[in-house]
User: What shape does this take?
Amino acid sequence: MILFTVNAVLCRSVERTAAHDAKRKEQEATGRLERQKLLNESENEKARTKLFELQAEAAAVESSGQAKAEAQVKSSQIENTNLFKKVSRKWDSTSNVGIIKKRINK
Assistant: This one.
């Protein structure tokens, strides 16, 4: 009977130790998972911040590109207008219309 009691005590002791170890390992695993979850959330937030920065930068580049294109169009229009005026003056001075205008104005 004493042997049975000693075996039962030893068995319960081993069971308790095993249960304690299992609980400790479970808590460690839960802690690692929580830590990894926080790290993932942190990295996600950094990536989102970088995305917003890049989107803002892209919008600024697009805006400045559009402004540059509009300025080039305006410059071309001014150049074309000046060229047209120059050609018109030259044509007026060399054409019959220009000669007639000159004679009328005398």
Remarks:
- The mean pLDDT is 83.
- The chain is about 95% helix and 0% strand.
